[in-house]
Amino acid sequence: MLLRDTSIVVTGGNSGIGEAIVLAAAAEGANVVVDYVSHPDETTSLIDKVEAAGGHAVGVEADVSRPADLHTMIQKAVDTYGRLDVLVNNAGIETRTSLLDTTEDDFDKVLAVDMKSAFFGTQIAAKQFISQGGGGLVLNISSVHEDWPMPGNIAYCVAKGGIRMLTRTAGVELGEHGIRVVNIAPGAVATPINASTEDDPEKMKKLKAAIPLRRMAQPDDIADVVVFLASGKAGYMTATTVVVDGGIMQGSVGL
Questions:
Q1: Do 20 and 26 meet the contact criterion of CB atoms below 8 Å apart?
Q2: Is residue 156 among the annotated active site residues?
Q3: Is residue 70 in some structural domain?
Q4: pLDDT tens, 238-253?
Q5: Residue 38: CATH number of its domain
Q6: Helix (H) or strand (E) segment spanning residue 159
Q7: C-beta pairs of 173-178 under 8 Å, 24+ apart in sequence
Q8: Distance between CA 248 and CA 143 in Å, rounded?
Q9: What is the C-alpha end-to-end distance of the chain, expressed in Å?
Q10: Using an 8 Å Cβ cutoff, are 92 and 65 in contact?
Q11: What total number of domains does the chain contain?
């Protein structure tokens, strides 16, 4: 098993990409903390699924936009499994609004969940890694829109662009402690956040035509990359982004 006895925290871990990461990590032997802010029943169901398959997982209710809750989340891993090895900053929201239409409240919510949480999550995890020794890994689930403009979803793009620079700078700052920081930038993924696109045949036709592999990613496509990066097979990777987009950034401009 690639992640045997590795202690991993996954924010927004009870649905979409987060759920797939939890299941994939547990299947490879990781001990998982599932962070959630809503739908506790889905968290319980996910933990039951992990345990039924012989894995280990616990849930923690934490609002990742609040540093105090992030402390609680990290401490849950330490109290339950004795240490923290990997933090996956996966939680994210979007408003799908343009520059002219985005309100201050829209902007603050997206930046708090998508970028502020990753910043302080990285800080808190890094302090834990240094305290316990042995290095560690922060994985940020970013987006191709950290680099590729998406008109009509500007706050999300700003947040993901910030995560790109957070990853690069934190990776450089923390390297001397044996701590790695890596982004994963998915393209279009079949998750609830993209349900409106999946429900529109014309949008799906246009989207698939723009993707060289001619399909949306499944959450497992992203989770498998998380497992690789969290394993010893990726130990020399840091301060960079791994793009997992089916080629969409090369196949289309301005979609």
A1: no
A2: yes
A3: yes
A4: 999 999 999 999 875 4
A5: 3.40.50.720
A6: helix 154-174
A7: 174/126, 175/238, 175/239, 177/126, 177/129, 177/130, 177/135, 178/129, 178/134, 178/135, 178/136
A8: 12
A9: 39
A10: no
A11: 1
